[in-house]
Amino acid sequence: MSTRAERGAAMLALVAACVAPSWAAGTADARAAIGRAATPAEVAAWDIDVRPDFKGLPKGSGTVAQGQQVWDGKCASCHGDFGESNEVFTPLVGGTTAEDIKRGRVAAMTGNQPYRTTLMKVSTLSTLWDYIHRAMPWNAPKSLSADEVYAVTAYLLNLGEIVPADFTLSDANIAAVQRRMPNRDGMTTDHGLWPGRGRPDTRNTACMKDCSGQVSIASAMPDYARDAHGELAQQQRAFGPVRGVAASAAVPANAASAASAPAPAGARLASQYQCVACHAMDRKLVGPSFADIAGKYKGQDAHAALAKKVKAGGQGAWGSVPMPPQPQIPDSDVHAMVGWILEAK
After folding, report:
1. pTM here?
2. Which of 25, 112, 232, 267 is the most exposed place for a label (fewest CB within 10 A)?
3. What's the pLDDT tens digit per position in 153-193?
4. Is 44 within a domain?
5. Is 256 part of a structural domain of the chain?
6. Which DSSP string corresponds to 159-210?
7. Quick one: which of 108, 91, 111, 112 has its CA closest to 100?
């Protein structure tokens, strides 16, 4: 006669035999129901990177003259007619010499050049082509055809005196042009971030078990020091979302307690989404002041139109500098900010 323990073990084995297959099958079905295989068209739209050996580069060509036409229409408003503008972004062209092109290292990178241009820093021509292809122009990325990207790249290279004015850049000769890049030998791989070096990029010890459920901040910049180097938000790029805390957003504890009323929701959102990096309340920065916007549309039903412009971007209403799109901002926040802006004084 079996003991109670034996009967219990037999019962558990029977339950396991019945339940396990059902559970496993259910898990498999649940996993199979998640997502779907990407279509060839979706993979092709994603797989657009161009590598330093030019793998992934599409066929095409473009002349310097064609590139100037595209540049004047879609690039010059931010970068200047000759890539020299420092108003919106740092200059793209300048700081390189014929000797740099011959040597493959830019001497001014270790000299007294007041700024570093793109052609001074970039080592691989594929990086330049790939970035223009996937990210430019700022307000309509990926809108340039392959031939237009070749043409714009050729125009930039001509501005840097890397190729002549009658040059045609193509997938057939781009590797030869790479051998003329001024800083082609300036990229170092001797650091921890480069794969295969065997060194981590930090010296922290990762917590793999029994980790704390609460993160405590051990160090932070005090409020009085946040603006020691000026308003950092205004020293970064003036377009698009900027992460972090603006120096002017830091309010000493005694000032906060003395405040008579909290800031309006629209003002808080304008600071949160870094609208204040381009717009001040009462003076022009990169874009018009909030007071000027309110004055222009006073007495008009402009709420919907301005909300649309915040989301979609635009150019021409206040000059040549484009207003970049902000699709990441929720509609409710956009409407709150626009309502506050239209009431600005």
Report:
1. 0.56
2. 112
3. 999 999 999 999 999 999 999 999 999 999 999 887 766 56
4. no
5. no
6. HTTSS-TT-EEETTTHHHHHTT-TTTT-----STTSTTS---S--PPPP-SS
7. 108
